[in-house]
Amino acid sequence: MIITTFIILTLTFFLVKLLPLEPMTGTIAQQKAYCEKQTYLGYFIRTNMPSPNLGNAIELTENGVTTYYYNKPIILQYGAWLKGIFTQFNWGVSQYIVPGNDAINIIGSRLGYTVSINVIAILIAIPLGFIFGIIAALNKNKPADHVISTLVMVMISVPSFVVISVLMLILAYSLHWVPSVFPYGPNISFGERCAGYVIPVCALCFGTVASFTRYTRAELCEVMSSEFLLLARTKGLSRGQSIVRHALRNSLVPIVPMIIGEFVGILSGSAILENLYSIPGIGNLFIKCINLHDYNVLLVDMAFYTIIGLAANLLVDISYGIVDPRIRMGAKAQ
Amino acid sequence: MSEKNLKSDNDFENSNQNTDNNITDNPVNNFNDESSFNKPEYYDANSIANADDGSEVSKDSFSFVQSDKKLHDQKFTTKPTTFLKDALKRFSKNKSSVTGGIILGLLFILAIFVPIFVPFSTKNDHPYEQNLPMKLFPAGSGFWDGTRTIHNQTLPYEVDDQGNINYDSYVGDPDLENYILKIKNINMGYIDHASSSASGGYAMMEREEAGDLDNQTTFMYCSEMPFDFTSTDPDDDYMLSYTLGTYNRDGYSQMPKFALAIVGHDKASDKTHKKVIPLTEFSSDYGEALPKKKADMRVVQHKTQSVNLSEIVKNATYKENENSTPVSVLSLFVDDSYSFGFIMQSERDLKTAFYVKDFELSKKSATLTEKNNLLFRSFGTENSKVKDANELVQIERDDKSDPSSKYKYWSASGKRFDAMDAYSLKCSILIDAYEQSYGYKSGQIVKGSVVQDWIDKGYVEFDFNIGPKSFKITEKGKKSGEVYIQENGIENLTATTLDSGEKVYTLTCTVLMYKFLGYKSMPVHLFGTDNHGKDLLKYVFSGLRTSLILGLIVATINILIGVIWGSISGYFGGLTDIIMERITDILSGIPLLVLMTVLTLKLGPTFFVFALSLCLTGWIGIASTTRAQFYRYRGREYVLASKTLGAKSPRLIFRHILPNAIGTIITSSILMIPGVIFNEATLSFLGLGLKNLDSLGVILSDNSNANVLSYYSYQLIFPAIIISLLMICFNLFGNGLRDAVNPSLKGDD
């Protein structure tokens, strides 16, 4: 897993660094600070003379002295990048988002919004999905099941940006119940803050509830038709007893790891949401980085997603073993 | 698993066997071959029963039955079913999937034909046709009729002698007036400016520009009131009560300081200029902050106060400058005319606003007579309260146009001074948006070549020396119906002579817009137009077509790559498999967005670059499906048998394994198309996708800005419905197909 992460990050590094050097924006002082930091970290070469064979340069004139900054060869930059990460956990400097600031700090300042929205969404979605799944499974092939299954089908199919737009249209623009832009900043009351979370949480729940319902229903249906449940009923347990004591517990086995997977799924899927609802999270940052070509921040953001994704895979595998001791990953087949 | 599932499972096994055997060239249906069957022996049951008694069974007791008949297996009366037929049968039983398939087919057909048959152009912007609503029925029918409701319009009204409120038609906005179909939802509302059709409200003073040098920016007063402040009788004291508040305008809520002031003519120095003298200390005490929801959201703080004006005036002193001795304010003004008001003092660089309400002046002893209460007289209200700020502001305004007017009650020293939250009638108006866009419109310029054409054909005639009035549409022109200028609608007529000697005429006139824009009759946009004036019906279905083409192309390429990759990986297994698996692992870890950005920046934002970037990692899913299928089938006996007979790898792959795996692969391929469309829409929605082509994602992202969400929601809803429908139908269809092809997977999606 570590090797895969490493290779993916390396590949992304090269892909990103293949992009052309962008002209700078901001004040001269900010640009200077950025270029100096880049030079210090080993990405740039600073010269006082233009040297055309090094490619495009960033020219900065301050107090009548022009300094030229050139990209180092990519492989040297890569070395510098690795050195920066491993020796001082320095992932580079931001170029446009907050010029001259450390990329890792930018991510850190925005992580809170993304994680809080996702955690709330998961906390709401799990019980809902679970309840609907159980209702559907227990009323299999009855009207309740059909209604739930159809809804699940629709909820899974409708693209998330449509859901978000429609939610914004109804809740924010037509009914005016919640703000139409995510409220953030120092002077926001608790009520407003809560209202701001309604749309993102609903939008994230929408798909998650659907997939939880579907998984729970499928699992529970399978367990319900299994032989040990028949045995339980034959022993004299009531339907309720057998469901609570045997069916539910066994159907939980594949669902618990799914929760972890789902969390990562919506963590990365909230980029559109954050972009549309102007939430200052890392998904929004990702889009911003790509549009502004702020490559260093982009790299950290991507590294974050990659690591989270792969770590989640690992966690899912481990949690299978914890939830159900019969499953041991990597154990020899008998 | 349910009973139904089990049953279909068996079906599947049987049908599977059939296909397996067909493919491995093992004849099963060859029932004519008698030798392969043992002939059944027939015997007499009675003779056996006898034999049980222990006696010898005689030979005679046996007889041949059917010995004269030739026995053959009877032919099947039913035809053997093929795997695909069987799957189709199962599929057609699944009603929701069939419905999904039909709707999908419809969408495909619409995507092909709608862009061909709808005549509007979606290439360029059409500034005259922006944001038209949906229209199917004639205007005024109430539903889908191309009308638009505009809310919160001020409705001018008049109050007659009986106190009834009268209004006839909307006269506020001349741009809308001609197209009104209905006025509805008439309610009381507020407006923030003085108007003849409003009443009440607060008098609001605002310091508009920051950085004003004058600290004491604004004051207001009621003038020329012959009050007698010299009286020593406390019953003659004048009481002043007022409500002051600060007002949060456009997010500014700074508190200006205020003081009570007296204004009068400075007779002492024998000058006639006005003097403003503060009577009280400047203070910013407006009372308590108002809880937000309960009061008007915009009023921040307010307070009602009552003071004895006579006492303040008597005790107030005034200093000309730092060194002079203070003098009584009253001694400054020998004349009887005084004015009162509030001075507003504010920070230099802050915008400020405050308001006055319920300004009341009364005498302790008795009700004010008409003689000494000008306020009473001038406003004709029952008591002396100055309630109607709206009216006051208007008087102040009238006053500006007429300097001789006596009623100089309120003033704001050159600053903005207006009524706030004045009551007025608000209404919603229903207008015919099509008439507004396509009907007669004045001030349009008709180009020279068109006019020249009309002259040549004899449709119009005019004498240039007389001017625009001479312009006439001839009988011939009226008959032809090609002249779209309104008669008597010519505003200007110019002619320029080119170097070549040709005369070019230009008309500024009222024209019938749809003809001016080149349509034969009034266009009807079934789903309206967007804010670039593009017909949404055509736009969305062209977008759907682009998305579908992209989806099909990308899916085809992905399937090709994926099947080949997956076959090799799954068939050979071992080290090859491990290496190939690791490669796909890493490829799938690279974020699509980055890959796409790099490619777009390097190669340009074209359709093929976009397709290419979707193909680069898109095949991984298919590859892993194929690999799993190959793992499943490559160990089967028939494959082994074929191998033993000397079949080479390609034959094993393409003749034996792939045909068995094809069902699952086809299903995941079909589910791949919506996946590609979804990816494309998502990326375009984020502004990273197609730049110069209109796909569903591009249209949706164009139509999901705040403006559309607030006013033209149908522009979002229509494409949203189409893309949702597409996704739902694809999923229903794909899942149904998957269930049909591979019933063992049914239920777990």
Characterization of the model:
The complex is a heterodimer of chains A (334) and B (749). With 334 residues, chain A is mostly helical. Chain A is 69% helix and 5% strand. Chain A contains twelve helices and three strands. Chain A has helices at residues 2-17, 28-41, 74-88, 103-138, 143-157, 160-174, 190-224, 227-235, 239-269, 271-276, 282-292, 295-323; strands spanning 44-47, 57-62, 65-71. Chain A has a three-stranded antiparallel sheet, with helices on one face. In chain A, helix 4 runs antiparallel to helix 5 (143-157), helix 4 (103-138) runs parallel beside helix 12 and helix 7 packs across helix 9 (239-269). The radius of gyration of chain A is 26 Å and the shape is elongated. Chain A starts with a helix and ends in an 11-residue tail after the last helix. Mean pLDDT of chain A is 81; it is low at 328-334. By secondary structure, chain B is an alpha+beta fold. Chain B has 24 helices and 23 strands. In chain B, the strands form seven sheets. A five-stranded antiparallel sheet of chain B has the order 12-9-16-6-17. In chain B, strands 7, 8, 10, 11 and 15 form a five-stranded antiparallel sheet that branches. In chain B, a hairpin with an 8-residue loop joins strand 13 and strand 14 (327-328). In chain B, helix 14 runs antiparallel to helix 15 and helix 19 runs antiparallel to helix 20. The radius of gyration of chain B is 45 Å and the shape is elongated. Mean pLDDT of chain B is 73; it is low at 1-40, 210-215, 366-387 and 399-414. At the A-B interface, helix 1, helix 5, helix 6, helix 7 and helix 10 of A face helix 15, helix 16, helix 21, helix 23 and helix 24 of B.
